[in-house]
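User: Before I run my own analysis I want an independent prediction to cross-check against. Here's the chain; please return only the structure tokens and, at the end, one sentence I can use as a sanity check.
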Amino acid sequence: MSSSVSSSVAKPRSTNRRERRRGGDGAPESGHGLDLYEQMLLIRIFEEEVERQYKRARIGGYCHLASGQEGATVGAVHPMKDEDLLFSSYRTHGLALAKGVDPDAVMGELFGREGGSAHGRGGSMHLLDYSKGFLGGWGIVAGQLPLAVGAALEISYKDKRAAVMCELGDAATNMGAWHEALNLAAIWDLPIVALVLNNRYGMGTDVEKASGEPELYKRAAAFRMHGERVDGQDVEAVLSAADRLLTRARDERKPAVLEVVTYRYRGHSVADAGTAYRTQEEMEEWKKRDPLLIYRQRLLDERRASQAQIDAIQARVEKRVEQAVEAAEASPEPPVSSLSQHLYGDPASAEQFSRMRPGSPFGERELVLEGLGR
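Assistant: Structure tokens:
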């Protein structure tokens, strides 16, 4: 097994493996470039709305935003085929939308409603939609890697023509699961691409201070595996690299590491201002290389889009996100009595879970209800 590691930025490609619409309420814009732009804009505006809804206490639990990483997200996921599987860390919203999960279902899940992609049981950190090949966000750092390798083993064992992409953050490359999972992927020739979204900070520690080898793609060499690094602010560069490595995984059963260098404008989570470990000057410099601004200007300069088309996409996406919020608000909350559903196959599980209701084990529930005259 040969080792191949490179840091060249891949040349953009103009072909699209499949036409998928990402959130408009009319026909999709024609052209590869406009499709990518609309996907990125949908994710940006969707997450801006998520932050507003979180601060209004309509979304509970933890919430991790990825504003600034849209080029990395869309570029990596866009060339995936329907049969390909995607695993991710807990920064899930954009990845779910890019994989084709309906915006209503993503917002509904954040609201904890029945209309959510996991019927309100996963929330922000544990989004999933099996029908779209998105097998979830995982809250344990690097915990998704062994699972993704297992899915790649199943693909190989059944001789399917498919691949797995496993997204993780830069800090996850320092976990034991990284080494164990990639070692198995290498020795078994499994069809998996480890997508490292390197936004330079884990929870708040600069990758230069946390990693003995901060050029993370080079770590693939430890497993004689191909690795490369691309500019995550250039959506077409990411798409080209991801397309090539996914095709290689499907056709040749070769794993790879793809490091995508990007940046998040928000802190680690909504509760983190992100200013304690980053300077304002650094953040402003990265915003000058915003993936949306770069790509929009490229489309205009190369006459692949007109300003009127760009404006139409803006209006359509804003309306689509508004509709997602309305759908989430209208969706009912899952009943407490359904707590045991989707967890165990034991037909007696509903009865067993009934004892977990408030006061059930010792009859307090019945006493409370009697006292309320019910």
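Sanity check: The chain has two domains: 5-334, 337-371.
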